[in-house]
Give the backbone structure.
Amino acid sequence: MLTEFISAEQCANCRLCCNFHRSSAWESPSLHPELADRLRQRGIPLKKREERPGCAAETFELHFHSQNPEEPALCPLLGSEGCILPRKERPFECLIWPLRLMFSSEGIPSIALYNAGCPAVLLPKDREKLIQFAAGPLLPTLRRYAASFPSVIRPFHPNYTIIGELNSK
Ligand code: SF4
């Protein structure tokens, strides 16, 4: 999560973004190949991301026991006190939550904001500050990461609001 906007305490009480359902398994974080190698060496089970044909990224394997789309599955790295990875070892998508890199419905690489219930962006003033941060100080980091790992850009999903183009200026 973006610690500038979400406190560790707020995150620990919510865990929305570390708790998936069969229907939202596509949201599990994409792992940069170097991070995937390190996690594999530690015995963490990984699998290819499936939401886009030909996507080169891997993600965590989630364990479901039924075909129920609402069956939940926790990220295997979620411990009783939050993520067990040190912050500098976490997937990029976890670090920038509730933002994501995503193609717009017109296919333009963009910055997207989760719009389906993250408590950090429920208040309009917090949401506006976050949008300004994404379009300002954070933008070079987002661009650098997308250039080094294009698979991180997700197909458009309506649970996200596009807040700006990634390469507009
Ligand atoms: S890697 Fe850590 S922060 Fe990311 S989804 Fe898993 S538990 Fe949450």
The beta strands are 19-21, 46-48, 58-60, 72-74, 78-79, 82-83, 99-103, 109-114, 160-165. DSSP finds five helices and nine strands in the chain.
